[in-house]
Structure formats: structure tokens, C-alpha cells
Amino acid sequence: MELIDYLPIFILLIIAVLFVGGTILVSHMVGRRKYGKEKMSPYESGMIPVGDARRRFSVKFYVVAILFVIFDIEVVFMYPWAVIFKKLGVFGFVEMMIFIAILLVGFIYIWKKGALEWA
Amino acid sequence: MRYFADWIIENLEFTRAIPSEYVYLIIMVVGGLLLLLFVVPMAGALTFVERRVAGKMQSRIGPNRVGPQGIFQFVADGVKLILKEDIIPTAADRRLFKLAPYIVFVGSFLTFAALPFSQKLIAADLNIGILYIFAVSSMVVVGIIMSGWASNNNLSLLGGMRSAAQIISYEVPQILSVLAVILLTGTLGMQGTIKAQGWAPQHWFLFHNPFAFIAFFVFFISAVAECNRIPFDIPEAESELVSGYNTEYSGFRFGLFFLAEFANVYVISAVAVTLFLGGWNTPFYLPTGIWGLLPSAVNLAGLITFLIKTFVLVFVCMWLRWTLPRLRVDQLMTVGWKYMVPIAFFNLVGTAVWMLVWGDKSIAALLGG
Fold it and tell me: Which end of chain B is more exposed for a tag (fewer CB within 10 A), N or C?
């Protein structure tokens, strides 16, 4: 695996950005433009908007985000382990079971604490 | 992609005059453009197919006016979107508002770089293929939450937050379920995963062992949830949030969100086919040597096999969408965290035990002796 194998991705990135920019530009140029104060105000199903959306939202979203970060990083640890699992054999299996057991204790804890309850 | 480049340099005389680096570069640019030419019309056509399928399922006809049976409907829709007014609300955060469609579209388009189409047809056969796909497709969340927040609209904000919460919740079971397959293959590469399977269904990882069988469903359900499709389409629940995070978007900016959504449906189906359903494996093997690029009959057979399997799964996505009702937010989180995550962990441990006891023998191999 050399760096040149990643070159297509870089080229695709450029193509995608150019495509998005190009279509938006065309759309901006050929689209009709007739702006008014009402049209440029936030859409509220026809009601006159009250306040704006720079408001506080439920702390649940933060809890989910933190849980995600924790679990995702734990899972990323498992990827290299899974790739060489055949070589590691029983030793690798026991070690990963201990790791998963610790993880599950944490999982049960947050479950009991009610972090997974949304309502 | 390098395979084609090498073949062209070897077999076409006129390319010898140009330094091979330039030939590589040109071929890659052409290949990338071809991929764009595949993705955009494909995603567009899927919107049309979905509407027709929905029509059939609801005992009505669906769009059938533009062209024979209405197959040019998506072209008309695209032109209409381009001709629409490009509106950025005054209250919006202009810079983030403009940036969001880029991130969403780029995030879903870049996953195609590591998606295999046939034995030789893949833009970049990375040795970390599946990890790359998860990493890049996670970028879409950033774009979605950015569009929701930048719109400065209560409906958009709620849609964006819900969408982000949902996507990251289902990401955990999704990448956990893939671990079951990685245990079996010992590789993260997409082509390597496909090569480890056979053309016959009993050699697919879906039927490899009971845990892999469950893993497929965990993967597919989580993947549908990541695409924000019904029954997991809380973020854009029309009846409560109008259109969710893209409420304020108009014209082709909106079209890009739409394209990205349908491109993602293809991506998850293709990944599921790669990991569990045998990918492009056909009963024929690829001749090498003098046949070079044009053994192509086999390559083509692989391509057709792969596309058929993928579009069957795409159809399943549509089928789900027009059959099931929408879940509530709390139900959605319950399904994700309290069912999918434990099942995925159970699968992982189960597969590891299976590997210890029987090695990587499948059920079919065990029964066959």
C-alpha cells in the first residue's frame, strides 16, 4: 500500500467539490431572483416567526454524543484485534473478552443510570 | 484503477510518448468523472424508481408523463431544481449554510472510492477499505448538523440535532456488526472480503454461521437508520418538522441533499453486498495474462452480479419505507441502544467463540464434512 493508492480519493474529492460548486453556481445564475423581506425570513409554516433558533436544547443530545464517543473509540480498538485474531488465538480471545467485560459493566451502569432513556 | 492504468500503458502504443505519471493522472481523472457520471444519474433515477415503487405499493400509478413510462422524470426534476430560486434566509449563518451541502455530498460521494463494482473495477482498493467507508460517511453528520444549525430555523435545528443523535447512535451497532465479518476474513479490504466468499449462497458470509446471519440484519437495520430513511426518518418527519434540517434549502442546494440521500442508499446496499452477500463472485474465474483488460466478459458478469444484488437491497430499502410506519424518537433510541448494541456485542463474542472452536469453517463446510 503506497501513497499513490490514495490519489484517486484526492481526485474524487476535487471532482465532488467542483460538481457541487458548479451546480450551485449554475443554479444561482439561471434561477429567478425576486427577493422580499417575507421570503427571506425563516420558514414557520406561514406563521410569523417568534425569536430565532439560537436556543438551548435538551441535554440528552449531549449524553448521546458522549456515549457515542466512548463506544466508538472502544470499537476502533477492536478493529486491529479483529484483523489479526487468527494469529492471536486463545490469548487474544481472552484478552478481548476482559476488555468487552469492562465495557459491558460500563454499559450496564449507564443503562441503570437511565442515560439511555429518552422520554 | 491502477490495474486499468497499467493495462493502458502496456497495451496502447501512443501513451508511451507521455510520462507514465501523467497517464496515471489522466486516467484517474477520467475514472473519477465516470464515477460521477454513474453516481448522479443513478441517484436521480432511484428517486424516480422510488416514486414508481411507492405508486405500485399504494395502488396508484406514480409519475409516468415525462418520456416512456416517465423515466425522464428525474431529469425534469433536476432541471426544475436548477431553475428554482436560490434562497439564503437573512437570519441564516451564510458561510455555514453554504458549506453544508458540500460536506454532505462530498461525504457520500467519497465512499464510492472504496466501493468495488467488479473484480477489477474499483477506484481505490484500500487495505483499510471498510474503515475508510465508515470514516468518510460519518462526515455527512457534520454537514447535516451544520445545515440544521446554520438555517437558524427551529424546525431545521431540531431536525439536525435529531438526525445527528440518530446517526451516531446507530453507528455503534453498525461498526460492531461488521467486526463479525472482519474476524472471519482478517482483512479490512473490500476486495479481500469478497474474495473470501464464494459465488454460491452457502459460501456467503450471510450463511457462514448463525452470528454472521444476525450480524447482517443488525448491519442493515443500522445502515437504514443512518440514511435517515423510514422507519427511522424522525429527522425529516414531514408531519412535525416540515422537512427537517433541509427545510430552508431551495434550488440545487436542496437537490444535493436529495442526491446524497439516494447515493447513500446505494452505498449501504453495496457495502452489505460486499460484506455479507458474496459481492461480485460469479461461477467464472477471471482469466489473466494475454487477455488483460478485456477478459471483461467475466469482469462484466461480476459487475452485473454486483449491481443486481445491490439494487435488490435498494429495493428492500424502498419496500421498508412504504410499508412501515415511523418510529418515535424515544423508541428509536431504545431500539438503537438497548437492542442493537447488546445484540451486536453478543454477535461479536459469538463469532470469536465460533472461530476458536471451528476455525473459519462455515456451517456448510461443517455439514459437508
Answer: C
Q: In terms of domains, do B122 and B243 share one?
A: yes
Asked if B40 and B180 sit in the same domain, the reply is: no
Would you kindly state where each structural domain of chain A is located, as residue ranges? Answer: 1-33, 58-119
Amino acid of residue B288: T
Whole-structure pTM value: 0.88
Rg (CA), chain B: 22
ipTM (interface predicted TM): 0.86
Which residue do the cell numbers 422520554 mark? A119
What per-residue confidence (pLDDT) applies to B97? 87
Kindly identify which residue of chain B lies nearest to residue A40, measuring between CA atoms: B89
Residues in chain B closer than 8 A to A70 (CB atoms)? none
Is residue B145 located within the same domain as residue B56? no
Assess whether pLDDT exceeds 80 at residue B167: yes
H or E stretch covering B259:
helix B251-276
Task: Report residue A98's pLDDT band, with 50, 70 and 90 as the boundaries.
Answer: very high
Of the residues B151, B161, B329, the best mutation for testing chain A's interface (the one with the most A CB atoms within 10 Å of its CB) is: B161
Query: Which of the 8 DSSP states describes residue B15?
Result: G
List the one residue out of B182, B188, B201 whose CA is nearest residue B277: B201
Q: Specify whether B255 is located in the same domain as B158.
A: yes
What CATH architecture is A58-119? Up-down Bundle (1.20)
Residue B11, domain extent: 1-83
- Interface check B154 vs A, CB under 8 A: yes
Q: B27 and B61: one domain?
A: yes
Spatial distance between the Cα atoms of B206 and B348, rounded to a whole number of angstroms: 14
CA dihedral B215, B217, B223, B228 (to 10 degrees): -150
Residue B323 has pLDDT above 70, yes or no: yes
In the predicted structure, residue B364 carries a pLDDT above the cut 80: no
